[in-house]
Amino acid sequence: MRYSKEHKNYTRSRIIEAAGRTFRKQGYIGAGIDGIMQAAGLSHGGFYAHFRSKDELLAEAIRVSMQRMRQHWFSGLEKLSGLEWLRELVERYLSQQHRDEPELGCMMPPLVSELARAAELPRAGFEATLCELVDQVAAKLPDDGPLTPRERALATMALNVGAMALARAVNDKELSSEILAASKKLALYDCQTASTSQ
Amino acid sequence: MRYSKEHKNYTRSRIIEAAGRTFRKQGYIGAGIDGIMQAAGLSHGGFYAHFRSKDELLAEAIRVSMQRMRQHWFSGLEKLSGLEWLRELVERYLSQQHRDEPELGCMMPPLVSELARAAELPRAGFEATLCELVDQVAAKLPDDGPLTPRERALATMALNVGAMALARAVNDKELSSEILAASKKLALYDCQTASTSQ
DNA sequence: GCGATTATATGACGGTCGTCATATCATGTC
DNA sequence: GACATGATATGACGACCGTCATATAATCGC
């Protein structure tokens, strides 16, 4: 090999990262390959040396971004468990900072609507990482409520995604924060200290 | 006037209805004006005799569709109230039929991601109808739980939208139904007969 | 340093988009 | 029944899209 064998992989991961940000900011259809490559500091033509199609890039971007987000959300909470752990997770996810920085946050609220109409490849990739995430959340949850840990993990995920997407869809910041706060309360319906910080 | 004065309004409403279906099926950016006009039995050129822009059409389509959906969901439940009413609403919203017919269902799951990036006009229209919906849901809810009626209305809306969007984004029908069932349970956490029918 | 090879850039293709100017058609009045 | 008028269709514009063929630039072994 003429180039160091890491060179192309590095460029590839830079494209994936730029795609993640651009998809989150502009959506899948709304983001063009030209813009993604420019965000990665490259020109548009070399794209197909790294990916076979835009769909394949979406699948990769979802996989990488979901895994990174998971690490980010779970970090520092290793000592917690049960409802205390859930409370911290929900506080992080439904924070105003997360709402105001879509391109740095979770991929699901900006993309879930389009994902329902996407091709098989990105859908399958999303589903796989979602299952991993659900399993890891469920493993942290208690088994003493009306919902099983897996049920609660799934429902909490749905609530988080829906709340963040709705909070970003409305103009009024007050209503937006109301959505986040109310959803936190529902997610922690059995946790008395539900609405402490914002 | 040479035409009956209802003629153009009728055509306009036909375009709005076709736009509603097409937007729900293909998304806002994914749907073209040509396809919408064809779905309304018209040609693409006459569009700008009815609307100033695609954004204006989106705002109208959201407004009309949200109001129709609200009537559809609330009809037949007038005699119920409190948790019984909520249970019926959630059963309707999170049904597999609703999941499998996006173009006939609620506009929020297919469009909420794009709405967060949309122009001011459609966002404002969406926000207005959403507020009406929240008020009407809250008026039906009891005031004795940890969440106020308004909080529960907002959180239930977020949960419903997120659950339906996620349920449509995954390929596996079993996982999809799991998401719906678990979200029903969380929405009705204080209702012992939560998971009766599918 | 030279040549081979690989990564990236340039440029172009067909297709589709939102928008608009213009033409055609249908309708109601006289 | 001819004409005026409003509703819809035809066609075109520039811009952007995903994709790919080709050219250029950068790197490493010798």
How would you explain this protein's 3D organization?
The structure is a homodimer of 198-residue chains. The relative contact order of chain A is 0.12. The model of chain A is unreliable at 194-198 (pLDDT under 50). Chain A has 9 helices and no strands. The first copy, chain A, has a domain at 53-187: Tetracycline Repressor, domain 2 (Orthogonal Bundle), CATH 1.10.357. In chain A, α3 runs parallel beside α7 (120-138), α6 (108-115) packs across α8 (149-169) and α8 packs antiparallel against α9 (173-187). Chain A has 198 residues and is mainly α. The interface between A and B is large, with 60 and 61 residues. Chain A binds a DNA duplex (30 and 30 nucleotides) through residues 1-4, 7-8, 11, 29, 32-34, 42-49, 53-54.
Briefly characterize the structure.
2 copies of one chain form a homodimer. The first copy, chain A, is mainly alpha-helical and 198 residues long.
Q: What attributes characterize this protein structure?
A:
homodimer; 198 residues; mainly alpha; Tetracycline Repressor, domain 2; globular; disordered C terminus; DNA-binding
Which architecture of the domain at 53-187 in chain A does the CATH hierarchy give at level 2? Answer: Orthogonal Bundle
Backbone structural class of chain A: mainly alpha
In terms of quaternary structure, what is this?
homodimer
Shape of chain A: globular
> How helical, in percent, are the residues of chain A?
55-70%
Q: Rg of chain A, please?
A: 18 Å
What's the story with the biggest beta sheet of chain A? none
Q: What's the β-strand tally of chain A?
A: 0
What average pLDDT do the residues of chain A reach? 93
Number of helices of chain A: 9
The H-level CATH homologous superfamily of the domain at 53-187 in chain A, spelled out, is: Tetracycline Repressor, domain 2
- Which chains share the greatest interface? A-B, 60 and 61 residues
Residues in β-strands, percent of chain A: under 5%
